[in-house]
Amino acid sequence: MNTKLLSLNEATRTVNSGSNKVTLLDDINLQVNEGEFISLMGPSGSGKSTLLNCIGMLDSFTGGGYTFLGEPVHSMKEKNRSKLYKEYIGFVFQAYHLIDELTVWENIETPLLYKSIKSSERKALVADMLDRFNIVGKKDLFPQQLSGGQQQLVGIARALIGKPKLILADEPTGNLNSKQSTEIMELFSQLNKDGVTIIQATHSEQNAAYGSRIINLLDGKIVEE
Amino acid sequence: MIKNYFKIAWRNIMKHKVFSLINVIGLTIGLSASFVIGLMIYYDYTFDDFHKDGDRIYRVVSDFKSPQGTFHNSGVTLALKDAIADNSNFESITEFYINRPSKVENKANNTEFKWPNFVMYTDEAYFNIFDYKFIAGDKSTALDKPNNVILTETRAKEYFPNTAPADLIGKTLVYNDSINITVSGVVENFKKRTDFVFEEFISHQTLLQTDRREELLERQWGNTNSDSQLFVKLTESANVVSIQKRLDDLALEHTDEDDKKYEMSREFQLQPLSDIHFNEDYGIYDWSKGQASKSLLSNLALVAVFLLLLGCINFINLNTAQASQRAKEIGIRKTLGSSRKQLISQFMGETFLLVFFSALLSIVLSKWLINVFSDFVPEDLSFELFKAPLIVLSILLLLFVVTILSGFYPALVLSKFNTVSVLKNHMAAGEKKVRLRKFLTVFQFTIAQIFIIGTLLVGKQINYLLNKDMGFKTDAIVSVYSPRSERELSKKELYAEKLRSIPEIKSVSIGSHAPASYSTNTTNVTYTNEEEIIKSEMQYIFGDTNYANLFELDILAGRIHRNDTVRELVINETLLKKLGFNSPDDAIGKALTVNDEQTPIVGVMADFNQRSLKSEIKPMALRGDWYRSQFSQFQAIHVSFHNESSENLKSTLTKIEDAYKSVYTETEDYRLQFMDQTIETFYNREKKISKLLNWATGLSILISCLGLLGLVIYTTNRRVKEIGVRKVLGASLFQINTLLCKEFLLLVAIAFVIATPLAWYGIYSWLQDFTYKTSISFIAFIVGGAAMIFFALLVISFKTLSAANANPVNSLRSE
Ligand SMILES: Nc1ncnc2c1ncn2[C@@H]1O[C@H](COP(=O)(O)OP(=O)(O)OP(=O)(O)O)[C@@H](O)[C@H]1O
Ligand SMILES: [Mg+2]
């Protein structure tokens, strides 16, 4: 239960906007073990999404060290990274990021395609997901034809279908009503109990409470544990 | 996965209908051109490729070198065969003699056939070299004896309708009224494409019974007739160098003194079988078929490549421009575990789908194009060729190459996107490829521009050639040739007499060919003045005393020959200068040595062109028919009309033909040529080039403008908000349009600057073939540039005006 999954060592991220240097993340030290459920909290603009993106290797730290499963990330090849996305990590985005040209069904199915799962099995898995999130009726619609909340559900379904060992969720329930968000949180803690590591960014104290650990961010710095 | 890709591909194609259409049109044009041109190349390169050991079969031909240049003759002297027959490098050697009988009769059926063509006199060896399938008769004995003939199936059906081949053996045909010939074999016609179009093979000894008897008996080294053909098949281990050495030695050994005096020499060459279809120096057996030209084919291939390139460029430009819209999808797919390779193959799949669709369209279009390009496409080139395995394979390969060419770069660009920057803000790397797109657009317009300028200048040159004064009268003149078998002069005079009585006819003259023609009759002359002996070659035209008058030849000094048979010459200015006279008057009364006889110059005529304006004016003399008693040179009757209005013309022509039939009752060999049409045939090749250029120009403008349209649509769509804001701030329609046009017009202008020297150079080199050339006028360049800018403006304004016209509130609100 305490295998080290990832560790951040004085990690920073700065960007140049025009002539001035902006520090988005400053001196982040963080160890995450497999099986943890971490909630990132902080006011808007504090850097939650930025940190999640960097952890997810969508973006990179500009300073400090970052090792994932014992391997330094900065020397990781693009090939290994896409292998990690395929087999290990599931993303839930704040802005949903569904593929506009694909239907709900096809959006959820896509990760399975990259995992080369057989068609019959894919059908069963997708149907199961649609059922679990109560969106069977929407399966042939395109993202623009869905409400924000529905899109968010599809995004979560898509992240979970590949059975990832690490879920990175950015405001997974931002657009859902309280009943729905409770259900999602229950689902997350169930997955967590089954051994899935979860890191989520959230504004809601209630949701944060599902986590085993809360990290507060302010202006790109971790303030307390 | 594949299915998923195609689904997305299809949805993307449908979502961007205009762009997809532009891509498909461009690619379809490029592919159609490639298909048709590819078929033509395949067609011509598969002539006579089916003969067994074809790479070891050669034709022996003669080249004559003299200070005037090299003359080619596809035949060799009849003496050559015996001199090389025992050479161990040859597996087989055969001579054949092409001779067209004037008449063949099947007495049993009472039918007769006039001037059957493709008749040769040959021996068994011919059938050893060329593998015909015998349906009847025996190859080894069929041509053993004189007075035997092998017919092809086609010819046999003609001579003996409804008779089985086996029953034909032993049947008799009568050639030229007197020679009885027995059918001894029937062979299948070659089923594949071939230049060996012969239909009748008569045993070689039979030639002794024809008017070629002397020629065959004497077998003189000094006599070369293109009808006398020699083919050899080399052994597998043959030494080509030693064969050539032997041929060179023989040529040297048999050079006569006269040839040496005039620095003339002869060479025998081995012409490979595969060269026969292409080499215009020696020609093919069926003159009515245009000869394939490697340079024309390679020009065509170049056009196809350019059109295809233009189509691919549209693809690259539009797809990289569109990249930002695809960026989000790419980013998401990456987070879902797609590798870069998978993304690239996804985009390539999309490209292939479009390419494949275009290919299907192109195949349909090709059928139509084969008709449009009928000037270039051989008549029997059919759509069926598409089934040839090599063609199918090449098409697949071409599709693959086009897919790579147009799809790979955009795919590379797209798959490279950084995930987060793409997901965060949808602007993306596509913007950075602006420079590449500009470069490619300039490239497109440069090609289009070169084509435009080329078309204008080639057109100008052709017009110039057709309208330039040849130096004699060329309109309202026809020439009627006497029957080939008819040598008697009295009938010509009778015919001329009848023609003179037709009121529409202004003037009639009996003579050889018209002043300009494909035929030449050349001899050597010497002139001895006080200081030196001057030698020159000299072409003859033969005519009666009215010839110069009818063709309105300009007599500068002296007079024309006094009558048809007096030994007098009227020389042209070129010969005058060559012989060193200062003025026309100086030459009058001087004598030239022609064939060892002194011949006086009685007149000097102004120069005129004897051929197309590509060639220089040659030294020439007009003379009468002074060897008439042995061999009359008069073979045509030239007729000029009072006026050449079309309604009159038709009835006049009928009268001319009726008169002909009343004189020559026995023959149907009526041949009439319009002078102006003959001159036009000098420029057939140039006209083909011009037509080709017209098409290439039109299509390249179309493709480039479509590409431009795509880019304009893309940019204006992106700038809709800016346009809205500017309008709200009070900019006029014109100002906005200028703003949008400026950027694109600059590209067109750059293309113009690049295209101008290239086009100039291309045209300059092309014009070097012509003795008479138009100036390369700068107007053509200006017109070319203006046309391009006009088209570009049209395309740009079409889109920008509608964008500028749109209600600004709509565009602002939607953002
Ligand atoms: N590429 C960038 N260049 C400059 N500033 C950036 C860039 N990316 C993010 N930022 C800034 O970094 C800060 C943190 O952004 P981030 O999206 O991580 O906030 P967040 O904590 O997720 O906020 P929210 O709760 O609203 O989602 C913001 O102030 C943002 O403007
Ligand atoms: Mg955020």
From TrEMBL, chain A:
<dbReference type="InterPro" id="IPR017871">
    <property type="entry name" value="ABC_transporter-like_CS"/>
</dbReference>
<dbReference type="InterPro" id="IPR015854">
    <property type="entry name" value="ABC_transpr_LolD-like"/>
</dbReference>
<dbReference type="InterPro" id="IPR027417">
    <property type="entry name" value="P-loop_NTPase"/>
</dbReference>
<dbReference type="GO" id="GO:0005524">
    <property type="term" value="F:ATP binding"/>
</dbReference>
<dbReference type="Pfam" id="PF00005">
    <property type="entry name" value="ABC_tran"/>
</dbReference>
<keyword id="KW-0067">ATP-binding</keyword>
<feature type="domain" description="ABC transporter">
    <location>
        <begin position="6"/>
        <end position="225"/>
    </location>
</feature>
<dbReference type="InterPro" id="IPR003593">
    <property type="entry name" value="AAA+_ATPase"/>
</dbReference>
<keyword id="KW-0547">Nucleotide-binding</keyword>
<protein>
    <submittedName>
        <fullName>ABC transporter ATP-binding protein</fullName>
    </submittedName>
</protein>
<dbReference type="InterPro" id="IPR017911">
    <property type="entry name" value="MacB-like_ATP-bd"/>
</dbReference>
<dbReference type="InterPro" id="IPR003439">
    <property type="entry name" value="ABC_transporter-like_ATP-bd"/>
</dbReference>
<keyword id="KW-0813">Transport</keyword>
UniProtKB/TrEMBL annotation, chain B:
<dbReference type="Pfam" id="PF12704">
    <property type="entry name" value="MacB_PCD"/>
</dbReference>
<feature type="transmembrane region" description="Helical">
    <location>
        <begin position="21"/>
        <end position="43"/>
    </location>
</feature>
<feature type="domain" description="MacB-like periplasmic core">
    <location>
        <begin position="20"/>
        <end position="249"/>
    </location>
</feature>
<feature type="transmembrane region" description="Helical">
    <location>
        <begin position="744"/>
        <end position="764"/>
    </location>
</feature>
<feature type="domain" description="ABC3 transporter permease C-terminal">
    <location>
        <begin position="698"/>
        <end position="807"/>
    </location>
</feature>
<protein>
    <submittedName>
        <fullName>ABC transporter permease</fullName>
    </submittedName>
</protein>
<keyword id="KW-0472">Membrane</keyword>
<feature type="transmembrane region" description="Helical">
    <location>
        <begin position="436"/>
        <end position="458"/>
    </location>
</feature>
<keyword id="KW-1133">Transmembrane helix</keyword>
<feature type="transmembrane region" description="Helical">
    <location>
        <begin position="390"/>
        <end position="415"/>
    </location>
</feature>
<feature type="domain" description="ABC3 transporter permease C-terminal">
    <location>
        <begin position="302"/>
        <end position="418"/>
    </location>
</feature>
<keyword id="KW-1003">Cell membrane</keyword>
<feature type="transmembrane region" description="Helical">
    <location>
        <begin position="692"/>
        <end position="714"/>
    </location>
</feature>
<feature type="transmembrane region" description="Helical">
    <location>
        <begin position="776"/>
        <end position="796"/>
    </location>
</feature>
<dbReference type="InterPro" id="IPR025857">
    <property type="entry name" value="MacB_PCD"/>
</dbReference>
<dbReference type="Pfam" id="PF02687">
    <property type="entry name" value="FtsX"/>
</dbReference>
<dbReference type="InterPro" id="IPR050250">
    <property type="entry name" value="Macrolide_Exporter_MacB"/>
</dbReference>
<feature type="transmembrane region" description="Helical">
    <location>
        <begin position="296"/>
        <end position="318"/>
    </location>
</feature>
<keyword id="KW-0812">Transmembrane</keyword>
<dbReference type="InterPro" id="IPR003838">
    <property type="entry name" value="ABC3_permease_C"/>
</dbReference>
<feature type="transmembrane region" description="Helical">
    <location>
        <begin position="351"/>
        <end position="370"/>
    </location>
</feature>
<feature type="domain" description="MacB-like periplasmic core">
    <location>
        <begin position="439"/>
        <end position="611"/>
    </location>
</feature>
